[in-house]
UniProtKB/TrEMBL annotation:
The species this protein was found in: Octodon degus
GO cellular component, one term: nucleus
Gene that produces this protein: Msh4
Subunit description: Heterooligomer of MSH4 and MSH5.
Name of the protein described by the UniProt record: MutS protein homolog 4
Position of the signal peptide: none
Keyword terms: ATP-binding, Chromosome, DNA-binding, Meiosis, Nucleotide-binding
Amino acid sequence: MGHSATSSSVVSAHSPSVIVAVVEGRGLARGEIGMASIDLKCPQIILSQFADNTTYTKVITKLKILSPLEIIMSNTACVVGNSTKLFTLITENFKNVNFTTIQRKYFNETKGLECIEQLCIAEFSTVLLEVQSKYYCLAALAALLKYVEFVQNSVYAPKSLKICFQGSEQTAMIDSASAQNLELLINNQDSRSNHTLFGVLNYTKTPGGSRRLRSNILEPLVDIETINMRLDCVQELLQDEELFFGLQSVISRFLDTEQLLSVLVQIPKQDTVNAAESKITNLIYLKHTLELVDPLKISLKNCTTPLLRAYYGSLEDMRFGIILEKIKTVINDDARYMKGCLNMRTQKCYAVRSNINEFLDIARRTYTEIVDDIAGMISQLAEKYNLPLRTSFSSARGFFIQMTTDYTALPSDQLPSEFIKISKVKNSYSFTSTDLIKMNERCQESLREIYHMTYMVVCKLLSEIYEHIHCLYKLADTVSMLDMLLSFAHACTLSDYVRPEFTDTLAIKQGWHPILEKISVEKPVANNTYITEGSNFLIITGPNMSGKSTYLKQIALCQIMAQIGSYVPAEYSSFRIAEQIFTRISTDDDIETNSSTFMKEMKEIAYILHNANGKSLILIDELGRGTNTEEGIGICYAVCEYLLSLKAFTLFATHFLELCHIDVLYPNVENMHFEVEHVKNIARNKEAIFYTYKLSKGLTEEKNYGLKAAEVSSLPPSIVLDAKEISTQITGQILQNQSSTPEMERQRAVYHLAARLVQTARNSQLDPDSLRMYLRNLKKKYEEDLSRVEQVSEKTEE
Ligand SMILES: *[C@@H]1O[C@H](CO)[C@@H](O)[C@H](O)[C@H]1NC(C)=O
Ligand SMILES: *[C@@H]1O[C@H](CO)[C@@H](O)[C@H](O)[C@H]1NC(C)=O
Ligand SMILES: *[C@@H]1O[C@H](CO)[C@@H](O)[C@H](O)[C@H]1NC(C)=O
Ligand SMILES: *[C@@H]1O[C@H](CO)[C@@H](O)[C@H](O)[C@H]1NC(C)=O
Ligand SMILES: *[C@@H]1O[C@H](CO)[C@@H](O)[C@H](O)[C@H]1NC(C)=O
Ligand SMILES: *[C@@H]1O[C@H](CO)[C@@H](O)[C@H](O)[C@H]1NC(C)=O
Ligand SMILES: *[C@@H]1O[C@H](CO)[C@@H](O)[C@H](O)[C@H]1NC(C)=O
Ligand SMILES: *[C@@H]1O[C@H](CO)[C@@H](O)[C@H](O)[C@H]1NC(C)=O
Ligand SMILES: *[C@@H]1O[C@H](CO)[C@@H](O)[C@H](O)[C@H]1NC(C)=O
Ligand SMILES: *[C@@H]1O[C@H](CO)[C@@H](O)[C@H](O)[C@H]1NC(C)=O
Ligand SMILES: CC(=O)N[C@H]1CO[C@H](CO)[C@@H](O)[C@@H]1O
């Protein structure tokens, strides 16, 4: 079975900037995967190494989450006509990603280890211990750095990179098909729409915060303590308006700190004018960023929750002050980040203080004179021709002349012949003159001189501050995290979300669908969910359109929101941490049944069966639509039986009513249905169906709807054979024995009592009195269940 990717990969809402190198072990180590990735916008290298089997789902999932710009593999993986399976799968799954092969010799693990020793910042050097014997990720790292140096034409400064190793266990796994089904990042109808989970939660103000939110949504946390620390912050932000608004206004002034860091730690191989210019710009950005540290500290001063205090503490790092002081010795106090290219050009030109370099001061005077001359010349021309001429500037053309047509009806061929390169945009003419072109050239020349001299000063400065620059990693982390937490709080103020709790029960009271809320005019119908270890398998029935899919998606979205530290759209909510979230959700066109739909279904379900465990949340909607009724029931039954053997929380929505009777055999099954009301339309003497979107316990009374859904079609016999057998056997039996025996009912009651007791004992936060009360109720409920069973059994015996 291949991977469950349904169509396009999860495309990032941001332009991709990650380069990944992937290498697979050979011979006995086949299946051992090494990966190294770097985000060009954030100088952090992530290494990972793990065992994957022939389906390579882990690699593909990891790659989809990274959403790379480019993938690098060894040339030995793709010999024409004899490529490795991994290579074939990657190229199939990432059709739009640039693919590069480089020689196997560059995948050199010794070199990889050397790279870490050379480039990794001391604070993160424990990574060496972690990866010492992980040859494949080291090999991938060596190849990656070689390639990046080649395309960027620059090398990384020594001890400047953050390198870390990431196992695959610390976050919950959401496969890419599920991410797509749930519309986590991309809306399935309109890829540009922000009606996605990301869109609902994104009120971030910085690119770093936005990136962080995205990666959190795809890989939620699994550690309850960490999640609760985030929730504490969100709660404080919600309770303290001054903190919220103060922090938000500071955070929104930050530029892309990670990207800044990324360019600061690269040393260009050649000194070009462009390289010089961008270094100067970056130094101004650095000054701007460092100047925000104090305001950020002030706004966090009164906060109380541990995580916010920790971030406050991280800002007390002396190095911020040290760097800023050093910068201020050579850079003008008022050199700052400004919008507009001419403004920024002026800032760059005058960034370095005067009296530091005599020749620089002379060059600047020359530059100023030329700029003045240009302005003078243009006003003379305006006088001479009596035209409303203006001096304009663009980075492409330099200085040029602009004139609006509002004041003059002159057609362009009647402009004075002195004016050349005339163009018209909307209601204004742009042109230049031979003299102006010459002056522009002189201007550029003096600017080049200025930039060059400034660059020399800046390089000297940078070499002095390099050793301290790593504090910016911490700052970037602080800013992006605060931005994301603010964003959660912001989303919460707009909709009435509630803080989730973490227990061993999934309980949502009056929860609603966060995305639907944004789309529909009325608030979506809220509903409850309750899954425990004792009844961990919910079968949900109801006709199509009654809201089954929406309900399932709502649960998954709430679970994800809770696990990233956000509040949740409900009145009350409690979650069991899910280590994986799987969905198999049919789309509307699945109703047109044919074998390709069926194959897709089977692939997705096989993926779930292979990878699910007791800590999974599994949502399955309308399985077996792609085939006829008997086969569909058979498949569903087989899948249910397997999933029932796990402790996973499963919600299984189906139109096969036959499946509901599985609860007779398994006490941990709970049946729910969406209510439908029939409304007599007297005028037409017809019945109309009215959907209430209400979920109720028990079976639906609607009998015949669903069966039309599946039509016979040609099917791969091998897959169907098993299912068919089960289908005839089980459905026959089940349908015969629709009513369960009293003995079963009794067992069921005992089972439920036991399950509740275990749960209470393990998870009780009640005080003794409440606990006593709770247990008394439990006992009463059990006695009721039992006496009901007794009555039934007496009746049968009569
Ligand atoms: C893949 O590996 C997992 C264990 O890591 C195993 O349970 C599963 O059966 C394997 N799948 C295949 C198709 O080999
Ligand atoms: C294809 O690759 C495998 C291993 O990578 C090798 O053993 C085999 O000889 C190759 N076959 C051809 C025709 O090159
Ligand atoms: C990726 O490939 C496209 C076309 O194949 C090319 O235009 C683009 O520049 C490439 N990007 C990189 C980063 O190489
Ligand atoms: C790997 O790199 C090390 C050190 O850079 C070098 O000595 C060795 O020859 C390289 N190995 C290969 C196979 O290129
Ligand atoms: C989503 O897009 C709409 C318009 O397309 C805009 O009005 C709205 O503010 C956006 N929402 C968010 C959270 O960005
Ligand atoms: C996130 O929302 C902010 C506005 O709050 C917007 O500027 C930014 O573009 C959004 N990010 C993405 C990736 O849509
Ligand atoms: C912090 O608390 C002090 C005293 O309660 C108050 O004066 C100050 O305005 C607060 N600062 C912020 C940023 O909330
Ligand atoms: C099967 O249905 C899908 C849509 O559900 C369609 O794209 C595909 O072309 C159909 N295939 C055949 C063989 O009819
Ligand atoms: C489900 O709804 C579609 C239209 O939304 C309808 O064509 C189809 O017949 C319905 N199927 C069942 C089984 O009700
Ligand atoms: C169905 O009932 C028959 C007796 O009527 C019994 O032998 C059989 O075990 C029952 N099957 C199930 C699945 O309960
Ligand atoms: C089972 C359940 O909680 N059903 C609820 C679904 O939502 C409607 C409307 O809010 C409620 O009336 C139902 O009780």
